[in-house]
Request: fold
Amino acid sequence: MSGPETVDRVLISAAVVFVVLSGALLLFRISRGPSMLDRAIALDVFAAVVIAGLGAKSAFARDSFYFPIMLVLAFLGFTGSVGIARFIAVRDKPLSRGKPGGKEDRT
Amino acid sequence: MSAWLQITDTAGAVLVFLGAAICLLGVVGMVKLPDVLSRSHAATKPQTLGLLLVLAGVALRLRSGMDLATLALIGFFQLMTGPVAAHLVARSAYRTGQIEGGELLFDDLDAQLTQPGQEPGAGPEQDAGSGRS
Reply:
């Protein structure tokens, strides 16, 4: 009985380590990202990683206490990146590359 | 009977582990890849595949009706909202000029942006307003 339980605990603990490492790398991308759109994508992935971490915690402890939080994150996690892409990224200065169309007049 | 429950538990733990590993792979791709579109390509791996594997693992370990329904709803909402955000981010990246046009094989959005009126419901007065970009 104790052998497979130990295997389960080791696997889920390794999963938690992977999730924490993913979060650290995503924080690096959020702080470093050259444009606001990179930060928007990184924030969107960060919500998914938080859901995965809460799922790993629920699988470890076998409780469903954090399921409403996961549901709300899955439902509302995309609004931040949509807001950034819709309203904030327009103010972001483009990089030194050429515009694809070249004829679009943006002020 | 208890052996089958133990097998189900271990399968759930393996699925959670695989989902977390796929999350880590996708995030490594987000750090390493150079462009907005390629990062968006890498971002879909943790969002859909890794998260669905983690949710399947949790469902195998919990095994009660209400929890299964909640987990199915979480996966459904993640599948619904992921493409919306990715589409808006990619469109905004195109409009702010962060995509090199020479590397695209097909560029249908350029014709729709530079010739207003071809697209239904996108007149020139709407093009100058706040509704676009």
Summary: Residues 101-107 of chain A have pLDDT under 50 and may be disordered. DSSP finds four helices and no strands in chain A. Chain A touches chain B through 60 residues (CB under 8 Å). Residues 2-88 of chain A form one domain.
